[in-house]
Amino acid sequence: MERNLVYTIGTSNRLPLEFVELLKHYKIQVLVDIRRFPTSKFEHFKKENVSRFLKENGIDYLYLGKELGGYRTEGYENYMKTESFRQGLEKLKDLAKDKTMAIFCSERFAFRCHRRFVGFALMASGYKIIHIIDKDKVWIPKDK
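RESULT FIELD:
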């Protein structure tokens, strides 16, 4: 396990098996849900269902959407200055010490959602961020 490495991934319209295969391909041990509202038009990505099928496939699930979820009235970059965001980021750092971790939301591409901001905040703390797009297709952002 590479230290100070965090992956991100979007559920998009992936099928459950496809999603789990991607996670296993990248050796993800714990998946952290950072959707503010952990539901989906796809039944399998609703919080209670995604947590169950991840567990069935040996992947831990944690919800941090309250602390790190998007859709903030003040804008996400302003929200990042809050104590709640800082606490969520610290929880991510603690998890990343012991396990190969990924954060996820619903957008396939991180540059379209708040995952990029969480990634940049982790990068500022010395973490390497890899945004999973597909099998063997990733986006590794440059330092800001």
